[in-house]
Amino acid sequence: MKVIRSSHGEFQTDERGLIVTPKEDIPEALRNFTRVNLAEYHRWCQENRIVPAEVIDILLVGLWYADADGEDYEPPEVLARECLVLELVDATEVIA
Q1: Helix (H, G, I), strand (E, B) or coil at 94
Q2: Model pTM?
Q3: Which among 26, 29, 45, 73 could disulfide-bond with 52, CB atoms 3.0 to 4.6 Å apart, if both were Cys?
Q4: For residues 44 and 52, what is the distance between their CA atoms, to the nearest angstrom?
Q5: How crowded is the C-beta side of 71, counted as CA atoms within 13 Å?
Q6: How many CB atoms sit inside 10 A of residue 63's CB?
Q7: Distance set, CA 45 to CA 10, 33, 92 (Å)
Q8: pLDDT per residue rounded down to tens, the chain (96 residues)
């Protein structure tokens, strides 16, 4: 189980990225998200020699969300990832 955290609150996903927190327990600002791209997050961590976190900043992952046309995708924030990698350049084992 992973926790996705934002300034609005958090929700839990299973290892496939499906949101398992009951909808009514998710903060209103996060309720449109339907799943998290954990596979891409894990690849990015591996490429950057980062140990994947159990509690993940929402900016570091891609998310699918429900909209009027069905579902759309919001990619991870590149700047947030770049800042994290730059902060950890000297570390031998890091957690994102």
Answers
A1: strand
A2: 0.86
A3: 45
A4: 9
A5: 9
A6: 20
A7: 21, 22, 13
A8: 999 999 999 999 999 999 999 999 999 999 999 999 999 999 999 999 899 999 999 999 999 999 888 999 999 999 999 988 887 655 555 555
Sheet holding 2-6, edge to edge: 9-13, 2-6, 55-57
Closest CA relative to residue 36, chosen from 50, 52, 15, 55: 15
The Cα 70–Cα 89 span in angstroms is 40
Q: Are 59 and 44 in contact (CB under 8 A)?
A: no
Cβ atoms of residues 35 and 64 within 8 Å:
yes
Cα–Cα distance measured from residue 12 to residue 21, given in angstroms and rounded to the nearest whole number: 5
Alpha-carbon span 94 to 41, nearest angstrom: 14
